[in-house]
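Hey L., structure's done. Input below.
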Amino acid sequence: PGIHRIHDGTAHLLRRDPTAPAGLEANYGYGLTPVNGCGIANAPLTVFFSVRPRELFARFGPAGWSAAQHACGWAVHGLCLAAAAEGLFARPVRAFKEIQTKEVIGLGEDETIVLSAVVGVPRETGGAVLDLRT
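Output:
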């Protein structure tokens, strides 16, 4: 358990932190209730995609933000499909409180969260499950 950063396709441990999932759940926009069951603290993986807006705009101009949104959306879409193929649950989310979450995951002041996804084992629903594998 800990905070990792992906750089050049490789995960690098920033710090070991077994409390990080609980910190993420505390900063999730929807609290844990019997109805919504966000369960962020029990998810084995939460992925965040971030950018440095100043660098993004300097390099790509005003279209950079939209391009970053599209790129992150497609990356999360692929993550969700890959998780489903392995029998896991993955859900794109953007409901984290930005500043507090940046502190939990160790983002710099110049970084902004674009999108995130929570990955885990689906809880039993008792009903039919949509199989997204092709």
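The CA atoms of residues 7 and 96 lie 23 Å apart. The two ends are 32 Å apart (CA to CA).

-- N.
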